[in-house]
């Protein structure tokens, strides 16, 4: 028996080692190397010696007005995106889990935008915001939309980014809600209906508590996805229209991921970009753990 157990463990680790090795090569080792470089003066230009500078890059990152602004608008974007994506996706899930005709077709249609690449999606919606909406608004006599482009103002450009992200991601989150809604026991719904509970009472006291674990998952996914937004940000708004912040004119829709990328590729300050990435990682981990903790605690309370 002991020999069989040892053989099972050996087989287990033999199958697991390739996955662990791949994860270490593409995640763990690059992260450790990046952490080291964040304490140096490493740059994209040729340099004979890389010097250790301590916390200078982190200090410079916190003093960087553009990084502070990107952190603020990324937080605003994330909150708006989490709320809108989950409301839309849950509404769609409720729709396609009813007896509506063609519900499987609707599921596929709602999920389809998620398979479109973010870069392509951004350019498609850039055409819609800059060309299609103004022309249609002009024909309908809606002068405000015809004369004011959403992508020309930093505030409306951020709203446009939220709209596009919701359109892309809601179908994916919808499928998680669909799976959760289909697992709600019909016996409970029918028993409550027999007892005279209204549709709203059944929804509030049965459906919502039963799908609470799905809320934990979807909130986590939308939180992480929103903070890491890069591809749609790049193709839809780019660095975005200029705005004033702390007395300086800066790019108005540069989210955190793009700010880090620009610091490395445009400013050629690779070490500072790496320091920003580490700060970004810590912030994302903290927010994610807090979200999961409070969501799980809510599940227990229910």
Structure report:
It is built from 13 helices and 2 strands; from the N terminus they run H-H-H-H-H-H-H-H-H-H-H-E-E-H-H. It is 75% helix and 3% strand. It has one domain: MetI-like fold. With 302 residues, the protein is mainly alpha-helical.
Summary?
This protein is mainly α and 302 residues long. Helix content is 75%, strand content 3%.
Topology:
Layout: H1 2-37, H2 56-63, H3 65-96, H4 103-111, H5 118-140, H6 143-147, H7 154-182, H8 186-194, H9 199-210, H10 212-227, H11 231-236, E1 242-245, E2 248-251, H12 256-265, H13 270-301
Q: For the largest sheet, list the strands in their spatial order.
A: 1-2
Termini Cα gap: 44 Å
Arithmetic mean of pLDDT: 86
Instruction: Provide the gyration radius in Å.
Output: 24 Å
Please name the defining characteristics of this protein.
302 residues; mainly alpha; MetI-like fold; 2 strands
């Amino acid at each position: 028996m002991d020999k069989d157990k040892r053989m099972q463990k050996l087989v287990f680790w033999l199958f697991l080692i390739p996955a662990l090795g791949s994860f270490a090569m593409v995640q763990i080792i690059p992260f450790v190397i990046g952490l080291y470089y964040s304490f140096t003066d490493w740059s994209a230009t040729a340099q004979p010696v890389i010097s250790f500078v301590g916390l200078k890059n982190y200090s410079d990152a916190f003093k960087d007005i553009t990084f502070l602004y990107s952190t603020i608008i990324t937080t605003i974007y994330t909150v708006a995106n989490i709320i809108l994506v989950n409301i839309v996706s849950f509404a769609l899930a409720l729709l396609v889990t009813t007896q509506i005709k063609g519900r499987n077709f609707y599921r596929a249609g709602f999920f389809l935008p998620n398979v479109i690449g973010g870069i392509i999606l951004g350019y498609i919606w850039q055409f819609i915001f800059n060309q299609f909406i103004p022309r249609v608004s002009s024909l309908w006599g809606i002068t405000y939309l015809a004369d004011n482009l959403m992508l020309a103002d930093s505030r409306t450009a951020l709203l446009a980014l939220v709209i596009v992200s919701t359109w892309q991601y809601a179908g994916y989150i919808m499928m998680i809600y669909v799976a959760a809604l289909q697992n709600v026991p019909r016996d409970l719904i029918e028993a409550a209906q027999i007892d005279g509970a209204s549709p709203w009472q059944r929804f509030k006291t049965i459906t919502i508590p039963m799908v609470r674990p799905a809320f934990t998952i979807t909130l986590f996914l939308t939180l992480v996805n929103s903070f890491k937004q890069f591809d749609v940000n790049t193709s839809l708004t780019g660095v975005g229209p200029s705005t004033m912040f702390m007395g300086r004119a800066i790019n108005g829709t540069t989210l955190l991921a793009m700010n880090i990328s620009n610091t490395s590729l445009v400013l050629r300050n690779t070490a500072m970009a790496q320091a920003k990435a580490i700060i970004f990682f810590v912030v994302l981990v903290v927010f994610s753990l807090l979200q999961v903790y409070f969501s799980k605690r809510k599940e227990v309370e229910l």
